[in-house]
Amino acid sequence: MNVLIVGSGGREHAIATCVAKSEKVDKIYCAPGNAGIAEIAECVDIKVMEFDRIVKFAKNHDIDLTIVGPDDPLVGGLVDALEEAGLRAFGPRKNAAIIEGSKAFSKDLMKKYNIPTASYEVFTDAAKALEYLDTAKMPIVLKADGLALGKGVLICNTLEEARNGVKEIMLDKKFGTAGNTMVIEEFMTGREVSVLTFCDGKTVKVMSSAQDHKRAGDGDTGLNTGGMGTFSPSPFYTKKIEEYCKKNIFQPTVDAMAAEGREFKGVIFFGLMLTEDGPKVLEYNARFGDPEAQVVLVRMKNDIIDVMEACIDGKLGKIKLEFEDNAAVCVVLASEGYPLQYTKGHVINGLERFEHEDGYYCFHAGTRKSSKGIVTNGGRVLGVTAVGPDLRQARANAYEAASWIDFENKYCRKDIGKAIDEA
Ligand code: AMP
Ligand code: GLY
């Protein structure tokens, strides 16, 4: 079969690597892809929001399955556009992707169906939000309603910070129209865990857990980023916690979406916080996480095409999801200065080493082919991922592999996976 993957990040490279292992697949295309994906797929110069061009391409190239990676095209309705043209696509339709596209929607859903989450209020009027803050407990969390590249969340320690935050989000529109509506929610403490699940509208199957490192600097300092590294599984997410989450969070969420007439088919990513009062939902995403996919998918034993087709056809109940009994760590190599300002176009050395080493992966995120070779082309450049028999060995392997790569303004956190020492 012919498969088209939509997206251009490390997540899409990890998905493409899985798809390439499937015996069912003859040819992989990726729109727009990157220099790493180009090694296993034919990259086509179509952007993820160019729906008409994607649909036309899929029709003209006999694409049997289109896999949509990023949030923007899912929330914008790319799966609907493909289905309307009679094509098969993996990912939620627009009316289900809203679970990520609107924080006000997802909070109201959790409230209505008693799914544990932080208490909150929704505001569309800045004056009312400011008034509410006067009586609220600090710290407090402000969230722009819509998509904001994972950056629309402000944690405010003082009333003054919170008042400024409301102004930035709702009046100065720091995150654009994403801030027309805002959620203000209770600040929670605890360990975070990312749990990715496959859903077919009614059944939910849970993948191995992961933990991200969102801040740019060591010791969780600095600005929020898309994610600087991950490990899988999370030793803090025990069997008992998983059982609780299946019963009280995962299945109720899928059932709630179905009850609302918004059947969810695809991946729901549950961002959880393990609080003293039990696990609570921080956020939902309607897709694989990035860089969570890099550590979870390399450990999956199933043929990813079988699983995705079962999701589309409502037959996920027949699939036994299986993961290797090992661990994986991903260290993101970024351009120094990310997520603010950084230079691009630097030659990347050392990539060839990965072709000869089993259990080591170099997923490309911001890279591009040039006359000089493969060069940096973004903030997050590569996701160097390694497996090992346990988390400690996987971490040692990932950092060793990170040292194989060299480019001019290479930056990475030195403490990815440090939390496992506390487990
Ligand atoms: P989100 O995009 O909603 O996952 O938020 C980004 C990050 O902000 C999360 O990964 C948490 O670290 C933090 N965060 C979000 N909501 C809360 C909350 N209610 N309490 C504490 N931290 C939060
Ligand atoms: N790594 C977090 C995300 O993909 O949203």
What does this structure look like?
The protein has 423 residues and is of the alpha+beta class. It has four domains: 2-93, Rossmann fold (3-Layer(aba) Sandwich), CATH 3.40.50; 125-180, Dna Ligase, domain 1; 191-318, ATP-grasp fold, B domain (D-amino Acid Aminotransferase, Chain A, domain 1, 2-Layer Sandwich); 327-422, Glycinamide Ribonucleotide Synthetase, Chain A, domain 4 (Alpha-Beta Complex). It has helices spanning 10-21, 51-60, 71-76, 78-84, 94-101, 103-112, 126-133, 159-171, 239-259, 292-296, 304-313, 391-402, and strands at residues 2-7, 27-32, 42-43, 65-68, 89-90, 120-123, 140-144, 153-156, 182-186, 191-200, 204-206, 211-212, 215-217, 221-224, 229-232, 265-275, 278-285, 327-335, 360-364, 367-370, 373-376, 380-388, 410-411. The strands form six sheets. Strands 12, 15, 18, 19, 22 and 23 form a six-stranded antiparallel sheet that branches. Strands 3-2-1-4-5 form a five-stranded parallel sheet, sandwiched between helices. It has a four-stranded antiparallel sheet with strand order 6-9-7-8, sandwiched between helices. The protein is globular, with a radius of gyration of 21 Å. The model has no long low-confidence stretch (mean pLDDT 96). The chain binds adenosine monophosphate (AMP) and glycine.
